[in-house]
Design goal:
51% of the residues lie in helices and 3% in strands. The chain has 275 residues and is mainly α. Strands 1-2 form a two-stranded antiparallel ribbon. The protein is elongated. Mean pLDDT is 76; it is low at 54-81, 101-122 and 124-128.
Length: 275
């Protein structure tokens, strides 16, 4: 095998990488026009593209110029860098995406056992197309993921997805009563009781009989130490419960397993139903 001089450290070496500093000895190519870069080039001399940007930094090659870009990615990009770091980053992002998208759509009151096998990419006619999801659907999926994790004591996962879920609902506004209930619950889970109270109040201003919003407001008030507000919200839950449950509100049907808990929490707080 012929030897060459490393463009980075100047040592004589052979093969695909420098034996002294690890610099790739294979040519890199521009992600825009396909022109070959010199070993230390920061910008393409043909089109001016950034040599460190785009798909040469570790993302998958596109159809145009795919062969050259894939080769540049495999060779590690910048001199002296780890040739596998781009693939590790891409793999981590893929696992995170699959975790959110492929997770079963469950409300926190419809908890299923946590699977012991790694998540697999959705396939077949029932597969979820992320591009087809509306902002609200994406927010609801994140809510399900956070609340399910919290319900089984997986605080690490809940904390990981909480900021994304809250941001997703803020980006999906205007929200209906159920969406505001979700957002208030997420904010309370994150410990932002002021925001949780304000969100529940926003929903109750539109529908002051909504049992889930009343429960969310009561829980936020309880955790904030506002006993008077908590009593008021829980009393309204008990006063309105039968009529509301008979109303056929679809929000209660979605959270059907939670509705009994809403009433029992009110009874427990008020001492068996007393004011």
């Amino acid at each position: 095998m012929s030897e060459t001089r490393c463009p980075n450290c100047g040592k004589h070496t052979s093969g695909n990488f420098c034996g002294n500093c690890g610099t790739s000895l294979k040519a890199r190519h521009c992600t825009q026009c396909g022109a070959e870069f010199t070993s230390r080039a920061r910008f393409c001399t043909q089109c001016g593209a950034n040599a460190a940007g785009g798909e040469t930094a570790g993302s998958a090659p596109s159809a145009k110029g795919g062969g050259a870009r894939a080769a540049a990615t495999r060779d590690g990009g910048a001199p002296g860098g780890d040739p596998n770091i781009g693939w590790w980053a891409a793999g981590g992002l893929l696992v995170l995406l699959i975790t959110v998208v492929a997770w079963p759509v469950l409300r926190p009151d419809q908890v299923a056992p946590v699977p012991n096998t790694p998540a697999a990419a959705p396939q077949g006619p029932g597969a979820i197309d992320l591009a087809s999801m509306t902002p609200r659907q994406a927010a609801d999926r994140l809510y399900d993921r956070v609340m399910m994790a919290a319900s089984v004591g997986d605080s690490a996962t809940a904390n990981q997805f909480l900021p994304m879920a809250i941001q997703a609902y803020d980006g999906a506004r205007p929200l209906d009563s159920d969406g505001l209930f979700h957002l208030s619950s997420l904010q309370r889970t994150a410990g932002d009781l002021e925001a949780a109270t304000a969100t529940a109040a926003e929903g109750l201003a539109e529908d002051d009989s909504h049992l889930l919003l009343l429960s969310a407001a009561a829980q936020a008030a309880t955790e904030a130490g506002d006993a008077e507000a908590a009593r008021g919200h829980y009393q309204r839950v008990l006063d309105l419960y039968d009529a509301e449950m008979a109303s056929g509100n679809p929000d209660y049907q979605v959270h059907d397993r939670m509705m009994g808990t809403v009433r029992s929490d009110a009874l427990s707080y008020l001492g068996g139903g007393g004011a």
